Amino acid sequence: MAKKILYGLLIVLVVIQFIRPGRNISEVPSANDIRVHYSVPADVESILKRACFDCHSNNTNYPWYTNIQPLGWWLQNHINEGKGELNFSEFASYTPKKADHKLEEVIEMVEEKEMPLKSYTIVHKDAVLTAQEIEAVVNWAKGLRTTIQPNIQ
Question: Which of 99, 109, 129, 151 stands the most exposed, by the fewest C-beta atoms within 10 Å?
Fold first, then answer.
């Protein structure tokens, strides 16, 4: 009986490898990309690309292990949730009030070291932010808020 269960599990594991989630890969920047509409200094852009964009943009750099199901499903769900919270590729489509609030959250989450997530930085060591990088992102987000706030109605 135990052999039948193991064989059944093995068959299920093999079959689910063929059921793949869609990929979050965009060849060209969105017309609503934050970098198209607002100034993003090169150092901040580099930080965002390295520590934020995999989950908060329309272009994810997928590691090899996302090809293993159900891990790939879990990661894609995580990416979808991240984009639902904040999507830098669609940032310009936000109302000024929403954009301001999202930047306020960026400041809070980065200052409190809640972002990037610990579960992400365990595997992506290069995404761990230094004190100087935190300061750069926070200062940029604060400055951008002052640009956006006069447009809030």
Answer: 151
11 three-state secondary structure: helix
Enter the tokens of residue 42. 């090169």
The full set of domain ranges for the chain reads 2-151
Q: Distance between CA 72 and CA 36 in Å, rounded?
A: 31
pLDDT in tens, 40-77: 999 999 999 999 999 999 998 888 887 888 888 888 88
pTM of the predicted model, to two decimals? 0.85
Rounded to 5°, angle at Cα 142 from 108 and 98? 70
Nearest partner of 94 among 145, 27, 43, 42, judged by Cα: 145
Work out the burial of residue 96: count CB atoms within 10 Å of its CB; fewer than 13 is exposed, 13-18 middle, 19 or more buried. Answer: middle
6 CB-contact burial (10 Å; exposed 0-12 / middle 13-18 / buried 19+): exposed
